[in-house]
Design goal:
The protein folds into 4 domains: 2-147, no CATH class; 152-161 and 344-440, 3-Layer(aba) Sandwich (Cobalt-precorrin-4 Transmethylase, domain 1); 164-246, Rossmann fold (3-Layer(aba) Sandwich); 249-330, Cobalt-precorrin-4 Transmethylase, domain 1. 37% of the residues lie in helices and 20% in strands. It has helices at 13-16, 56-65, 78-83, 100-112, 132-147, 164-180, 194-202, 229-237, 248-262, 276-282, 295-299, 317-330, 344-357, 372-383, 399-402, 418-429, 452-460; strands spanning 2-5, 24-29, 38-45, 50-52, 70-76, 95-97, 116-119, 152-158, 184-187, 205-208, 219-222, 241-244, 266-270, 289-292, 307-311, 362-366, 387-391, 407-412, 434-440. Strands 1, 2, 3, 4, 5, 6 and 7 form a 7-stranded mixed beta sheet that branches. A 5-stranded parallel beta sheet has the order 17-16-18-8-19, with helices on both faces. The protein has a 4-stranded parallel beta sheet with strand order 10-9-11-12, sandwiched between helices. Helix 2 (56-65) packs across helix 5 (132-147), helix 9 (248-262) packs parallel to helix 10 and helix 13 packs parallel to helix 14. The chain binds iron/sulfur cluster. Iron/sulfur cluster binds at residues 163-166, 224, 247, 249-250, 313-314, 343, 345-346, 373, 414. Keywords: 4Fe-4S, Iron, Iron-sulfur, Isoprene biosynthesis, Metal-binding, Oxidoreductase.
Length: 475
């Protein structure tokens, strides 16, 4: 390992030589504008060569967790920058121009040692940029990042990532944008993934919590998690043009709730309080439904007359079983849905994570914190006895988790784009040799049609794709 510094003394030289790592990253400290003093290069490019640094987002995330503002950039020589022909096409990260001599030193070092950190910032200038307090944090981030280096096996769970309901919901928003224009209002997050939400916001979508934030007469999309009849009524009153992206498997639960209530049952919904799907389902027959989250909640129920149950679609089967058993014990004539409410995508992803967890030292689940099915995947992996963490993307990956983890299980919740999984594999490859093995436990062929209001527009102008391509991961 070597450190190439454009300045004289290097703060981290002695520290970095402690590690024999197989990662290359460049970082540079810019004159302070206050916001992003540390730039981490995901790619270094000259007119003759281009070197990717795939572990850069991981290092940037570690810097941020330690209170050091960091941004992932592309580094180019002045010649490349002036030509405007950077080969980072498709990579919209900002381009930063570096001195060709420094870039050449980086290249030379990267070819002869296992890893390189390239510091533009001489030690004595740290204080001039107001960073002395952060230097120790940068040092710790580098230590942590370096300690995570090494060869690994990655076990990919299959299926993972998008389900048919999420694919459909995103497509609905895209078609509605094309048909109604921007701004297009969406009530709640269309699916529970922050990357998708931010991307759609950039394309002209305005996410709102409630319909009174939507101008009268505007178009509004209901999210995949479904809404109560009261929300539909509010949309009517405001004369909104509604496009409903409720997943058909959530709609199935709504229909069951109404049917069970019509026959006189009290309907016990097993689900998580406050989740949008749960609220939408409870709202179908609010005076006939009650929510339970646990077996303890079942003990507290006081119901006269017939009882039936339903479940949120994204729960864990092993978690729900105990609650259903408790309900049966309390209400021996309990009736349930004709087929399980936990959807095929949730079940398949849980089976798949079980198939990799036992052979993994660590399981990473890509998904957002408000994604119920992603949270359940973490819990399922932990119940298999394996350390597991939820990450929104690679920058959430704490290098400390990777120390000693030679086999990393990897999956993604039903609302997480496949591209984010690819980025995790790439980052691990930036830390050393990686062999990818996929364990596929189910084929998914489910597809849902679009709502009537959008089918006509689709027939006239079919979409190329939903803008979230499937991943390509080399074994
Ligand atoms: S996780 Fe299941 S219920 Fe939720 S959108 Fe996907 S298919 Fe529909």
């Amino acid at each position: 390992m070597a450190v190439v510094s454009a300045g004289s003394a290097c703060v981290f030289a002695e520290l970095l030589t402690e590690f024999d790592i197989h990662a290359a990253a460049v970082f540079q400290v810019q004159p302070a504008d206050g916001a992003t003093p540390v730039l981490v290069a995901a790619q270094v490019e000259t007119s003759e060569w281009r070197m990717p640094c795939p572990a850069a987002p991981l290092l940037a995330g570690e810097l941020r967790r330690r209170g050091v503002p960091a941004q992932v950039v592309r580094v180019a020589t002045p010649e490349v920058a002036a030509s405007g022909e950077s080969r980072g096409s498709g990579d919209d990260r900002p381009e930063v121009v570096a001195d060709p001599k420094d870039v050449a030193l980086f290249r030379a070092a990267a070819e002869t040692v296992s890893a390189v950190a390239f510091l533009h910032m001489p030690k004595q200038e740290w204080s001039a940029f107001g960073l002395p307090g952060k230097a120790a944090n940068v040092r710790q981030a580098l230590r942590s990042w370096g300690a995570a280096a090494g060869a690994r096996r990655v076990l990919l769970a299959g299926p993972r990532s998008f389900c048919a309901g999420v694919e459909r919901a995103i497509k609905i928003v895209e078609r509605a944008l094309a048909s109604y224009g921007s701004p297009l209002y969406v009530r709640k997050q269309i699916v529970h993934n922050i990357h998708i939400v931010r991307d759609l916001e950039r394309r002209g979508v305005v996410f709102v919590d409630e319909l009174d934030e939507v101008p009268r007469g505007a178009a509004v999309v209901f999210s995949a998690h479904g809404v109560s009849p009261a929300v539909r009524q509010a949309a009517l009153v405001r004369e909104l043009r509604v496009v409903d992206a409720t997943c058909p498997l959530v709609t199935k639960v709504h229909i069951e709730a109404k049917r069970f209530a019509r026959r006189g049952d009290t309907v016990v919904l097993i689900g998580h309080a406050g989740h949008e799907e749960t609220e939408g389902t409870l709202g179908q027959v609010p005076d006939r439904m009650v929510l339970v989250e646990s077996e303890e909640d079942v003990d507290r129920l006081s119901i006269d007359g017939p009882v039936s149950y339903l479940t949120q679609t994204t729960l864990a089967e092993d978690e729900v079983k105990g609650v259903i058993d408790a309900l049966r014990h309390r209400f021996p004539l309990l009736r349930g849905p004709g087929s399980a409410d936990i959807c095929y995508a949730t079940s398949n992803r849980q089976d798949a994570v079980r198939a990799i967890a036992a052979d993994s030292d660590l399981v990473l689940v890509v998904g957002s914190v408000n994604s119920s099915n992603s949270q359940r995947l973490v819990e399922v992996a932990r119940r298999c006895g394996t350390e597991a963490h939820l990450i929104d993307d690679v920058s959430d990956l704490d290098p400390a988790w990777l120390v000693g983890a030679r086999t990393v299980g990897l999956t993604a919740g039903a609302s997480a784009p496949a591209k984010l999984v690819t980025e995790v594999v790439d980052a691990l490859r930036g830390l050393g040799d990686v062999v990818v093995e996929e364990r596929h436990t189910a084929e998914e062929t489910v597809e849902f049609g679009l709502p009537r209001e959008l089918r006509q527009a689709l027939a006239a102008d079919p979409p190329a794709s939903n803008g979230y391509p499937h991943e390509v991961i080399q074994p």
